[in-house]
Design brief:
The chain is mainly alpha-helical. The chain is built from six helices and no strands. 24% of the residues are buried.
């Protein structure tokens, strides 16, 4: 995709949306956002393990953000969709209102929409192509 047309297409806007979502979450995770530790304890993990894992998760989220923006490999977009859905579902699992899940639909729907726009892979090797 040429840069001059980047923000005028559905694909470009979706790439930008996925980038922003995963970059923002990645930076918060690198900072070990204290409010997120309850999501680890909600699934039986300790806060100390959450504090250890959050920087790793943050690094991974930032890598996903960059891949989505510059070279959106289908397998990474699929991962982003699954990860976005899981992290959104963690909200009501941890006792937050269901609306906290609903509010985060774009976190998983945007990567899946971009994947659908690119075309669902028909062969295993196609998962590793943009």
């Amino acid at each position: 995709m040429k840069f001059k047309n980047y923000f005028t297409t559905g694909e470009g806007l979706l790439r930008l949306g996925v980038f922003g979502s995963f970059l923002g979450h990645g930076v918060f995770a690198l900072q070990v956002k204290q409010g997120w530790l309850k999501y680890f304890t909600a699934v039986g993990l300790s806060e100390s393990l959450g504090s250890t894992l959050l920087p790793l998760i943050g690094t991974m989220d930032i890598i996903v953000a960059l891949i989505a923006l510059f070279y959106p490999i289908r397998i990474v977009l699929a991962w982003a969709g699954v990860w976005g859905l899981w992290t959104a579902l963690l909200r009501p699992i941890a006792g937050d209102p269901i609306w906290d899940f609903v509010e985060r639909w774009a976190n998983w729907a945007a990567p899946l929409a971009l994947l659908a726009l690119q075309g669902w892979p028909k062969r295993v090797k196609d998962w590793f192509k943009p």
